[in-house]
Design goal:
The complex is a heterodimer of chains A (about 120) and B (about 110).
Chain A (H helix, E strand, L loop, with lengths): L3 E4 L2 E4 L5 E7 L5 E8 L3 E10 L2 E4 L6 E7 L2 E6 L8 E8 L10 E2 L3 E5 L1
Parallel strand pairs in A: 2-11
Antiparallel strand pairs in A: 1-3, 3-8, 4-5, 4-9, 5-6, 7-8, 9-10, 9-11
Chain B lengths: L8 E4 L5 E6 L7 E8 L6 E6 L4 E2 L4 E4 L5 E6 L8 E9 L12 E5 L1
Parallel strand pairs in B: 1-9
Antiparallel strand pairs in B: 2-7, 3-4, 3-8, 5-6, 6-7, 8-9
Classes of the chains: A mainly beta (about 120), B mainly beta (about 110).
Chain lengths: ~120, ~110
């Protein structure tokens, strides 16, 4: 494993409530990513970060926000959760000194259910 | 969209080599071939990647054809724990953008 943890690992919440998922790394990688995985869609990028306080949107960013105040932590927030955000969320990291290629390493995932 | 084509499923006998093919006929000169796998409910696991030369590590070997339009991932002695979905991904070298996962190949080791 590449020193990535996600918390919580499972969460059940109700529509309209705010939810924050945490990704923590111990590898000092520069880049961090949030993906969601749904049946029939594979993994899709939500947001990513290329440094502390530097973030950008991915393919499916609507309804999500992120923050990165420290190198090791990348937070994903659902401001007002909806049932369509029921999914498995994966964090990934990359960018530890590889010159021409980049390998992403994934966390164990968070299973979120919005009722 | 994914730039690769893989068979949806394959079977392999335990202890035998598993050879997983991938077509990437539109690959460009600076794009690498990456392989990941995902065991049920777990995060995708990096296996190996290469540009044009064959590569080997402790998990697998990657054979890339000379024209780079296809590749094969080889698991030399498959075990039950290798049962997973295997994804072949083509990606620009040095890119820090997202990985685009296709549907992959479901490998069943029996």
């Amino acid at each position: 494993d590449a020193g990535i943890t996600q918390s919580p690992r499972h969460k059940v919440t109700e529509t309209g409530t705010p939810v924050t998922l945490r990704c923590h790394q111990t590898e000092n990688h520069r880049y961090m990513y949030w993906y969601r995985q749904d049946p029939g869609h594979g993994l899709r990028l939500i947001h990513y970060s290329y440094g502390v306080k530097d973030t950008d949107k991915g393919e499916v960013s609507d309804g999500y926000s992120v923050s990165r105040s420290k190198t090791e932590d990348f937070l994903l927030t659902l401001e007002s959760a909806t049932s369509s955000q029921t999914s498995v969320y994966f964090c990934a990291i990359s960018g530890k000194g590889q010159k021409y290629t980049d390998t992403q390493y994934f966390g164990p995932g968070t299973r979120l259910t919005v009722l | 969209d994914a730039k690769t084509t893989q068979p949806p499923s394959m079977d392999c006998a335990e202890g035998r080599a598993a050879n997983l093919p991938c077509n990437h006929s539109t690959i460009s000169g600076n794009e690498y071939v990456y392989w990941y796998r995902q065991i049920h409910s777990q995060g995708p696991q990096y296996i190996i990647h290469g540009l044009k030369n064959n590569e080997t590590n402790e998990m697998a070997s990657l054979i890339i054809t000379e024209d780079r339009k296809s590749s094969t991932l080889i698991l030399p002695h498959a075990t039950l724990r290798d049962t997973a979905v295997y994804y072949c991904i083509v990606r620009d070298g040095g890119s820090q953008g997202n990985l685009i996962f296709g549907k992959g190949t479901k490998l069943s080791v029996k």
